Amino acid sequence: MTVIEAARRAAGLSQRRLAELARTQQSSVSEYESRRKSPTLEVVERLLQAAGAELAVRPLVEFDYLEDPELGLFPVPSRLWQVPVPLCFSRVQVFPFRSYAGGREVWDLSEPTERIEFYDLVLCHGTDEMLLETVDGALLVEAWPRISLPSSVRAAWQPVIDAAKGAASRGDPPRDPVGISARIAAEIGMPWPRPTRAGRRH
Known about the structure:
It is built from 11 helices and 4 strands. The strands form 2 sheets. It has a two-stranded antiparallel sheet with strand order 1-2. The protein has a two-stranded antiparallel ribbon with strand order 3-4.
């Protein structure tokens, strides 16, 4: 599926309606989606915008599969990632592996307890595709101390968790979202970041 088709379907639009919104021909949309014709980047952006979407650059996540004598192979990523809202809070269903989850099939990821149970299951027994689609990095970091994982899985994932929390643990200065605080401070003639009592700057 192309990004154009994915955006169109997510917006609930027909090819004809997307073409109308993007001021192009329905036949062109069809050719782009079937890969019979390659659109320019400008055309892709225009079609996505008409569907209420945008292109985004995400860091590539690579996976290694490590082996545990009891679990077998389990995936470990090179970095954490984001699952967009509302997907990170959706209900998910997996085949009922009775030995893994007591036969449970459905988890509500909007419920913290169920999310933790599901994360425990999928980190040990899921595929990299399952992880990318269901496990949000920020929610995983928040839940990490409460997830009951085998020691091999916890040890393998711990550097990834630590890297995600790296800025805070290194004592990096706080971020100034979109630089708004610096602009306000400059307008009123106040130094920014403000010095602390110990002479360090926040």
